[in-house]
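Write out a record, focusing on structure:
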Amino acid sequence: MRNPEIMNLATKVKLEADSKFPAKRESRVTVKLKTGTDQEKVDYCKGLPQNPMTREEFEGRFRGLASVVASKGQG
């Protein structure tokens, strides 16, 4: 996190807690552009029973997360 461009972008990010959590685990991403606002909502995050991952998605996610703690050659 020493990249000044990323640090500058991070100052523009705003997080808000959802009062419906944990009963409802929807996600909302709002991107405000200079030309207007673009909004996307996902009712159920990927991986929940209501929006399951495929086997390939699950394996990819596992490998990605495991690679952070496992050195090459262990997986």
In short: The longest strand covers residues 27-33. The two ends are 27 Å apart (CA to CA).
